[in-house]
Design a protein that fits this description.
CATH superfamily of the largest domain: NAD(P)-binding Rossmann-like Domain
Structural class: alpha/beta
Length: about 300
């Protein structure tokens, strides 16, 4: 990778991906794009881009002379259920446009899938790398279709498309963007600010999670991995820990003893969470490109609280 375009750069993953890529490959090598106006961290190399506009995607990739696209633009699970037609247009239309441009310009493509690609009939604990994928949300449907489309472009046209299935991602940099796992970010912000949190999922809802620094590092490592090592491409199971709202609260109390949590369950998001795995098996990622998380629940919690307190 030497010239990189990032779509969805203002989102929860994109904002930190841009910083990491620029640190690794140089400030001017990484062009950030998003449909939203840029934050200061995105400058100087930022352009507005609607990924559903095929001509605009093509023009930006070609003018930047990109050899790699990190395609992160998407509408997430909870927002997708509120606007399924828009989710399909952005998630599938945008990916199709990116893959077509990658084919024309000879680019590699990273695009993340998600644990939302699984569904109620998937073995939940552990969830294998290769298994039943029958999701119950439009977001999940677009992720399964996206995995298949990326594999098709690799098998049929040789496009070097790679991806991971992100679990819930926890970050102190950017607020979450409408996903079912948002509670795992919100709980830290509310713990530091107010010492209490009301959770929209039930106390024993177990989901896979990962601290954002691990997610960013792992994604870049996958794109740097030797292609002849990869048996799977789209997409690798990837995880670091399994948490529940109660286990998050207990970890926070190690640092904020008076922290309290209450529950006001949202049936829609609870239903989505209940359809997802309780624990995914990421053996393939560990074997094929040496994936290894650096943060567990305790070390992540300590760093989150330190970082959020430092803003005061």
């Amino acid at each position: 990778m030497s010239r990189i375009v990032v779509t969805g750069a203002a989102g929860q993953v994109g904002s930190e991906m841009v910083t990491a890529l620029r640190s690794r490959y140089g400030q001017e090598a990484v062009l950030a794009t998003d449909i939203k106006p840029p934050s200061a961290v995105m400058q100087p190399a930022f352009l507005l881009l609607d990924v559903t506009d095929a001509a605009a995607v093509s023009e930006i990739v070609r003018e930047h002379e990109a050899d790699t696209i990190f395609h992160l633009a998407a509408i997430l699970s909870a927002r997708g259920e509120a606007a399924p037609q828009a989710a399909w247009a952005v998630n599938m239309g945008g990916l199709y446009n990116v893959l077509e441009v990658a084919l024309q310009e000879g680019c590699s493509v990273f695009t993340p899938s998600s644990i939302a690609a699984f569904g109620p009939s998937t073995p939940p604990d552990p969830t294998p790398q290769d298994t039943i994928q029958r999701p119950s949300t439009v977001y999940g449907v677009t992720k399964v279709a996206g995995e298949l489309l990326c594999d098709y472009y690799f098998d049929r046209f040789g496009v070097d498309a790679r991806g991971v299935r992100y679990p819930g991602l926890i970050s102190h940099v950017t607020l979450p963007g409408g996903g079912t796992t948002d509670f795992a970010v919100e709980i830290y912000y509310e713990a530091v600010a107010n010492g209490r949190y009301t959770c929209f999922l039930g106390p024993e809802t177990q989901l896979d999670m990962m601290y954002m620094p691990d997610a960013i590092r792992g994604s870049i490592e996958l794109m740097e991995a030797a292609p002849d090592r990869l048996i799977h491409r789209n997409a690798f199971n990837m995880t670091a820990m399994q948490v529940t709202p109660e286990s998050l609260a207990a970890a926070i109390r190690e640092h904020i003893p008076d922290f309290s949590i209450a529950y006001d369950v949202d049936p829609v998001r609870q239903g989505i969470a209940d359809s997802w795995p309780r624990r995914i098996d990421d053996t393939a990622a560990r074997e094929e490109w040496d994936w290894q998380p650096e943060y567990d629940l305790a070390s992540m919690t300590e760093d989150m609280i330190v970082q959020l307190r430092s803003r005061d």
